[in-house]
Amino acid sequence: MGVFQMAEITAGVVMKLRQISGQGMMDCKQALGEAGGDMEKAMDILRKKGLATLSKRAERETTEGLVVTITSDDGKNAILASLCCETDFVAKSDDFIAAAEKLVDYAMACSADSGVQAIIETKLNGKSFEDIVTECVSKTGEKMQVGDYAKFKLDGPGFIKVYVHFNKKVGTMIQVQTSDDKVAASPSLRTTVGDIAMHITAVKPLALDTSGIPQEKIDREKAIYADQVKNKPLNIVDKIVEGKVKKFFADNCLLQQPFVKDDSKTVSEVLAQAAKEAGGKASIERFVRFEVG
To answer: What pTM, to 2 d.p., does this model score?
Structure first.
């Protein structure tokens, strides 16, 4: 009494659950049997299996995935995020791509401007992004996780520029402040900032300027340089170390780096020139660079 027999579950019902869940026919039939034929309960069972799969794969590497982006219609908000998985095969699958496309919607709705946990807990239509990931894991059998997330918001004249490489595995987002809206609208300035975004993607600066390099990192570099020249006369050691630190900043601080498209100028100089030609001034407020793998 009260037991829903497997024989009572028709092929049509099993097929419907398979279409909804993306799971195999036998898994769907078994879930329907456990759920007494209730479609929603069967979906819950399949999702729990997805969680179990996720738990089993918790230690696996997620070195593949996609970098995704979206910009609001008014251009004042932009998102850059990454969704990671284990293999390139899954990264190219329809289910994973659909989950990555949903990620930017959840990111735009997220109350926090950064933080993976915040976006995982964000809900749309009663469903959290963690639910989306779990469902995708149950379909693909691979570990998945949000790799990075950032949201930039304009609070004055300027614009946000995003560049995602054609392989969708690396991308950069830059926020630029300008002296006025007319300068911000300059096509040539926007093109230049787009080139700077590609520069960041290729060169991988550690920070915008020297203030963004942690002091402990600078101290560690100085110690290494000092050890390299410890056999030199003491009166020139400091000068050699100072020169090497300046080179370190030039190599790793965006504004001081030689611009990839014209290494006779720094990124700072290229930006200043483009802003001047646009009739004003511009400064890079911040940037992020995300890469999977």
So the answer is: 0.78
